[in-house]
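Q: I'm writing up a methods section and want to include an example of the input and output format. Could you take the sequence below and give the corresponding predicted structure tokens, formatted cleanly so I can copy it straight into the document?
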Amino acid sequence: MSRIGKNPVAIPDGVQVAIEGQTVSAKGKLGELSVTLLDEVAVSQDEAGIAVAPNGNSRLAKTMWATSRTLVSNIIVGVSNGFEKKLEISGVGYRAAVQGKDLVLQLGYSHEIRYPIPAGIDIKCPTQTEVVISGIEKQKVGQVASEIRGFRGPEPFKGKGIKYAGEQILRKEGKKK
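A: Here is the clean output for your methods example:
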């Protein structure tokens, strides 16, 4: 039995949820999102919130049970609060800035990197070494953060590069003479 799947998804104030067949759509103060679930799970709404249950006893139904519940939870949290990822840049001369609809990164290469900000994503740079990515879709926010981190991942010797806020980098010892 799924520990995650059996818990209903609570609906906060200010969020309207509509269920039509296998499509769950949520509308809140930040926008509107919807997700279509597989036929192996059943979705219902009651006073406790939205409940997801497996249809049948197949392996796919059991595996998609908690996944579907999490997808529904993510759209509800997204339209009510949104999601946010923070990146930290460390290294001499490494910096970031938002110019128009582009994120401009200087990461020690001979050229600057211009990353076009996708629709539905908001990127801010409170300082030159901090990048804050926010949006209502959890998957999109994580994907954008991963793409930006991929331009210059943290290296293990000096720790230079782009890392997630709070990420621990395993440091290696350098050469010995």
